[in-house]
Amino acid sequence: MNFLWQAGYAGAVVLGVAYLVFPARIHAFGFEFLRRSPAEESRESDAPVWLYRGIGALLVFIGVTGLV
């Protein structure tokens, strides 16, 4: 069971790093209901990118504290 927890924490770190490095690509790949409507796409916003970076930082934090 301990190995499964460590694998889960390592997976959280990997997923978190992916969210930190490629936030725009992950946003484009995500679910349709998370994306902005076409009317809102005319103005550029960095909010989704920073949201994904925040999620990535949280996942890295959770993974690192679980592994230590």
Itemize the secondary structure elements and their pairings:
Blueprint: H1 2-21, H2 23-29, H3 47-67
Helix pairs in contact: 1-3, 2-3
Describe the structure in brief.
By secondary structure, this protein is mainly alpha-helical. Helix content is 71%, strand content 0%. It has helices at residues 2-21, 23-29, 47-67.
| Mean residue pLDDT | 82
Number of strands: 0
Structural class, by secondary structure, is mainly alpha
Instruction: Evaluate the radius of gyration.
Output: 15 Å
Count up the helices. Answer: 3
Which series of helices and strands comes N to C?
Answer: HHH
Major β-sheet profile: none
How far apart the termini lie comes to 16 Å
Transmembrane segments: 6-28, 49-67
Keywords: Membrane, Transmembrane, Transmembrane helix
Please characterize this protein's 3D structure.
- The chain is mostly helical.
- It has a domain at 8-21 and 47-67.
- It has helices spanning 2-21, 23-29, 47-67.
- Helix 1 packs antiparallel against helix 3 (47-67) and helix 2 crosses helix 3 (47-67).
- The protein is elongated and about 45 Å long.
- The model has no long low-confidence stretch (mean pLDDT 82).
